[in-house]
Amino acid sequence: MRFALPLILVSLLPACSLVPDWPDLSGLPGAETLGLATPLPEAEVEDVPDSARLRAGDEPSLYLRWHGRRALAVLTQQNGENRMWQSPGGMVVATDGARVVATAGMRQWLAATRLDGPDPLDEPLLLLGRETPLRRQVDLMRSDRSPEGMRFGLMLSCRLRGSMTEAAEGVPALLIREECRGGGENFTNRFWADPETGGIYRSEQWIGPAGSLWLEVVNPPAS
Questions:
Q1: Which residues does 174 contact at the CB level (< 8 Å), separation at least 6?
Q2: CA nearest 71: which of 95, 47, 51, 90?
Q3: What residues contact residue 110 under an 8 Å CB cut-off, 6+ apart?
């Protein structure tokens, strides 16, 4: 299984550690996907103003929004195209390709993601005017690890299609819509890409019962 990351389209940097010494989490479902050796408590409340994106410095970072909350997450771990980002308050997002493949730090976690075949987002430009199917499984759980909050092997059937649009900045963009359903869920993910390079720089993705997570590249690692 491979998770593409045209979201960043940059070279890898050595991981920096922001994770304190909490008890071992290696046996927790989803821990391997997240790349976590330690557990994370629920994220502290963060309120990052939009202007903070301009003061993020040079660290590779993502701007996150969910449920009216905002955070800046920096790159902390990586293994090939699989990257983990963490905010100072404890929000953690694992990405590989343009996809969010796992989360931690919320009451509801996206514990793991498994794709059935290649990810069409590996080649965003090929999706322009073309519909492509994709099936994947996800594991969901609550941060308290209660059995009633676990849903493993949730199968989703999705269809992706790209079209030209105009981004908020008034520049042309390739907008990829991914419509998914299965296991009682029905949602649409959106990915914005550079129409020339195919680099995905912004997305809005379903992450389970927590709803949708907005991601925007603030600083990619240096090429």
A1: 124, 125, 127, 128, 162, 163, 164, 165, 192, 193, 194, 195, 198
A2: 47
A3: 30, 100, 101, 102, 103, 138, 139, 140, 207, 208, 210
Tell me the mean pLDDT in the region 32-39: 46
Lowest mean pLDDT among 18-27, 132-141, 157-166: 18-27
User: Using CA atoms, how far apart are residues 213 and 202, in angstroms rounded to an integer?
Assistant: 11
CA dist., res. 64 & res. 196, Å (int) = 25
Q: What pLDDT is stored for residue 46 in this prediction?
A: 53
- Number of C-beta neighbours around residue 55 at 10 A: 10
Each residue's pLDDT tens digit, 92-105:
999 987 899 999 98
Tokens of 222: 């240096």
**Residue type at 158?**
C
Of the candidate ranges 24-28, 55-59, 103-107, 122-126, the one whose mean pLDDT is the lowest: 24-28
Separation CA 200–CA 134 (nearest Å): 18
Question: 222 pLDDT band (50/70/90 cuts)?
Answer: very low
